[in-house]
Amino acid sequence: MRNAGLDLEVIVDRLYAPLYRFALSLTKSEVEAADLTQQTFLILAQRSHQIKDVSKVKCWLFTTLRREFLRVVRTHAIHPTLEFQPDIHDAPALSEDALRALDAKTVLGALREVEPTYRTAIELYYLSELSYKEIAETLEIPIGTVMSRLSRGKEQLRAILAGAISESSNKIIPMSRDEEAAN
Amino acid sequence: MKKQQIEMTNERAKLLLSAYRHNGADAQDPFFREALEQAARDPELASWFANQRGFDAMISEKLQSVQPPATLKSAILSGIQGSPSRHPFPLGQLLGLAAVLVLGGILLFVTRPKNEGLPLAQYQSAVFAVLSEGTALQLDLVTSDLSRAQQYLSRKAAPRAPEIPASLRQLPTVGCRAIGWNGKMMSLTCFSLPGGELLHLFVIDAKSLGEIAPPGDIQEINGWHVKFRRQNDMLLMLVSKAPLSELSGYI
């Protein structure tokens, strides 16, 4: 019954940081994100014997974290399933220099402003680097819907960042990694 | 049935390539092949794709720079691996965890007078107070390894079963906890049953309960199945909500 193929220490080492980032994007609170990340690993430890396919652990963890978040905040918003159809791809152009000047907080803040329908898909895309198949599995939506959400979500993110750059480009001071971590 | 071919327009290629990871992790995925070929043929699409990958790389880089709290990894590992932590999982707010447990524990601790001959009924109440939280158990150590759980309890000078029944040794553990109660120590070790329910093993020094005569058969108390066992000086109390049909092989 034990899952001998599941090395929890290795899994924690590999995935706690991306899970925390995903939790942070969901909860907007560092304390709650840390708690949610711990709770997710606690559930993994409790149910490790139920995991049949070790290769699915990453996807399982992100799915579990998201479910725990939804359970806790009792969010039952309906995320409409989108049609798999071509979209308009005329997002505003952003220069590489302008993007480079942005700090992590600004990007994370912009990510949070993306409509909830699209946000989770692009959070998983950027923060967990899940594949489109894994995102579909995690969110329990069709692959076509993942495509639509990623496409539209990225457009929104570009637009939000473009707005942030134009509004406060003179105020943005890039922070070092240590400063970001300290904040 | 023949699969319907969808024409690969630039718009459709953009839609598909929106899911293409900038680090090349999808390079071998045939799902993207046609769209990538289209990008190789069409300069406008190629330019869009290069811009998109640059954007994705930059956003990923920014977001990856967000660092978890320095203590998070050790806090997780202390639960999973067995490094004892004075502060077990701080799950309170998110889980609605432990409010009942903590309150119950405090009340038990504060209101019970110290007594050399604590009766079995009080001990039983304390056990159910620990289990009454309902949502998730608070454990000092989360581990699927019984020997680690035993080592932890030993370090904490918590009572342990002289010999874990062979049927239980086959089960993965969930974790354990050393519990102070009325100046005494008791221990809890949780096992995961195949059906998904938990089986809790509480152990206390029987002498601390005075002269007791625990029932020998399986009891049903408040929806819990309870079975007492004596092993030398230790009193083992096995508690589970699993159906008797599943428990019979274990308790």
In total, the number of domains of chain A comes to 2
Question: What does the overall shape of chain B look like?
Answer: elongated
Query: Quick one: CATH class of the largest domain in chain A?
Result: Mainly Alpha
**Mind telling me the C-alpha Rg of chain B?**
28 Å
Oligomer class: heterodimer
Tally the structural domains of chain B.
2
Low-confidence stretches of chain B: 82-117
CATH topology of the largest domain in chain B: Phosphorylase Kinase, domain 1
Low-confidence stretches of chain A: 75-89, 172-183
Sheet bearing the most strands of chain B, described?
Answer: 7 strands, antiparallel
Gyration radius over CA of chain A: 18 Å
Structural class of chain A: mainly alpha
Biggest protein-protein interface? A-B, 61 and 59 residues
Helix run count of chain A: 9
Give the name of the CATH superfamily of the largest domain in chain B.
MucB/RseB, C-terminal domain
| Number of strand elements of chain A | 0
Helix content of chain A: 55-70%
Strand content of chain A: under 5%
The termini of chain A sit apart by 43 Å
Describe the protein in words.
The complex is a heterodimer of chains A (183) and B (251). By secondary structure, chain A is mainly alpha-helical. Chain A has helices at residues 8-27, 30-47, 57-73, 96-101, 104-113, 116-128, 132-139, 143-168, 177-182. The model of chain A is unreliable at 75-89 and 172-183 (pLDDT under 50). Chain B contains ten helices and seven strands. Chain B has helices at residues 10-17, 33-41, 43-64, 72-81, 92-95, 99-111, 120-131, 146-155, 166-169, 244-247; strands at 141-142, 173-181, 184-192, 198-205, 219-221, 224-231, 234-240. In chain B, strands 1-2-3-4-7-6-5 form a seven-stranded antiparallel β-sheet, sandwiched between helices. The longest helix of chain B is centred in the first third of the chain and has 22 residues, at 43-64. The radius of gyration of chain B is 28 Å and the shape is elongated. Mean pLDDT of chain B is 78; it is low at 82-117. At the A-B interface, helix 1, helix 2, helix 4, helix 5 and helix 6 of A face helix 1, helix 3, helix 4 and helix 5 of B.
